[in-house]
């Protein structure tokens, strides 16, 4: 717990996001997530301000994942705290320390992450199905429609395909991989989901080889 708190406290933004706390509850009163979840930004800030290590560790098991990162709290706090920013720092520490809560939260998004990392896009329209997104409820039926037919009905030229818009230029993909490597995203992913990490490294290697072949061809020309 101490190691986790040390990481939170030593984050470069920590002192900027936490300046004291009146315990006034304005942040919680305006927080949309507090309306729906067992979650209170006031509680998070108090835990950090009083350095309640057990409470911080406990909040990192579930509560910090309820924040929607809208920063309404930061706009309202009379102390100019940013509870949403503090939650972000706690999430980073949770990832770094491989807490089980991170794995639980990310599990439903594995497909989306694979799509983002392998193609650079988040979601192809044909991935939106009731089976893949049961948490969307009955309204998904409005989206889960015969997309090929619907697209043909659009009067502007869309190439009538589900795929073309989702193909990312090879060079762009390589640049994205470089950013993920340099910023530590891949390192974090390895801690959270080593199987997904292995798949993504394979995809990256393949694309890099493809890109290198393309460069070699250009040199020959
Ligand atoms: S950033 Fe998070 S804590 Fe702040 S108001 Fe939005 S949901 Fe609530
Ligand atoms: S973080 Fe700010 S708004 Fe929230 S309880 Fe503390 S002083 Fe009040």
UniProtKB/TrEMBL annotation:
PROSITE patterns from the UniProt entry: 4FE4S_FER_1, 4FE4S_FER_2
Superkingdom of origin organism: Bacteria
Residues annotated as domain 4Fe-4S ferredoxin-type: 10-42
Keyword Coiled coil part of the UniProt annotation: no
Segments forming a coiled coil: none
One Pfam short name: Fer4_8
Listed GO MF terms: 4 iron, 4 sulfur cluster binding; metal ion binding; oxidoreductase activity
Cellular component terms per the entry's GO annotation: plasma membrane
SUPFAM superfamilies in UniProt: alpha-helical ferredoxin
Keyword annotations from UniProtKB, A to Z: 4Fe-4S, Iron, Iron-sulfur, Metal-binding, Oxidoreductase
Oxidoreductase keyword on record: yes
Record-given protein name: Heterodisulfide reductase subunit C
UniProt source species: Rhodopila globiformis (Rhodopseudomonas globiformis)
């Amino acid at each position: 717990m101490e190691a986790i708190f040390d990481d939170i406290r030593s984050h470069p933004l920590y002192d900027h996001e936490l300046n004291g706390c009146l315990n006034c509850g304005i942040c919680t009163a305006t927080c949309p997530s507090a309306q729906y979840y067992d979650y209170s930004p006031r509680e998070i800030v108090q835990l950090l301000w009083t350095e309640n290590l057990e409470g911080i560790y406990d909040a990192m098991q579930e509560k910090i994942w309820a924040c929607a990162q809208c920063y309404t709290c930061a706009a309202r706090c009379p102390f100019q705290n940013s509870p949403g920013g503090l939650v972000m720092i706690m999430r980073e520490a949770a990832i770094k320390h491989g807490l089980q809560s991170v794995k639980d939260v990310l599990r439903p998004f594995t497909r989306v992450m694979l799509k983002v990392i392998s193609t650079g896009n988040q979601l192809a329209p044909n991935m939106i199905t009731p089976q893949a997104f049961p948490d969307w409820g009955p309204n998904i039926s409005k989206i889960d429609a015969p997309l090929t037919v619907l697209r043909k009905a659009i009067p502007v030229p869309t190439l009538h395909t589900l795929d073309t818009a989702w193909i990312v230029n090879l060079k762009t993909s390589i640049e994205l991989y470089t950013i993920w490597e340099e910023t530590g995203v891949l390192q974090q992913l390895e801690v959270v989901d080593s199987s997904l990490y292995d798949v993504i490294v394979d995809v990256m290697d393949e694309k890099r080889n493809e890109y290198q072949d393309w460069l070699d061809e250009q040199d020959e020309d």
